[in-house]
Amino acid sequence: MPNLEGSAEKTGSSVRIAWVGNRAHEAISLDKKPPTKPDEGLLAHMDSEDACIPFQRYGDLKQPCATFIYSLAPRLDPKEVIINMTCPGMVNTNMRDVLPLHMRLIVNLVMSFRAKPILHSASCIVHWWRAPSHMASS
Predict the structure, then answer these.
(1) Does the predicted TM-score (pTM) go above 0.70?
(2) 43, 67, 93, 128: which is deepest, by most CB within 10 A?
(3) Of 32, 33, 37, 58, which is the active-site residue?
(4) What does the pLDDT average to over 71-81?
(5) Which residues pair with 91 in a beta bridge?
(6) How far apart are the C-alpha atoms of 108 and 46, rounded to whole Å?
(7) How distant is the alpha carbon of residue 132 from its chain centre?
(8) What's the rounded Cα separation, in Å, for the pair 116 and 119?
(9) What b/e sequence results for 14-53 when a residue is b if at least 16 CB atoms lie within 10 Å of its CB, and e otherwise?
(10) Which residue among 62, 70, 79, 116 is the active-site one?
(11) CA gap 73, 92 in Å, rounded
């Protein structure tokens, strides 16, 4: 963080950290998983096959990232470092291509009327990024 704060001081303008989040981090399955082993780290535990709960892994992996951003924000001077976590909503990506065919058909149907094109979501993030500091932090 000293580099970020130093950059802000050197340039005279705030530095930004952007995290593209997802509301999936609110629906985690860590309480349903077996406990970590004494010599096992959290990420290794989350990556183990026996602790993987299908269709909840995405949210489980978004949770540590969101927790990091939430814990980092109060430690930094908001005049020097602006942290924003944005959720562009459902985005039409190829993540569903790895699903079994029967699931892919359902997800394709939902995506056809709910998902935004990638470029639309990306443009929202770019426009936020270019917003003046007082707008981005409000």
Answers:
(1) no
(2) 128
(3) 58
(4) 86
(5) 116
(6) 27
(7) 23
(8) 8
(9) bbbebeebbebbeebbbeebeeeeeeeeeeebbeeeebee
(10) 62
(11) 29
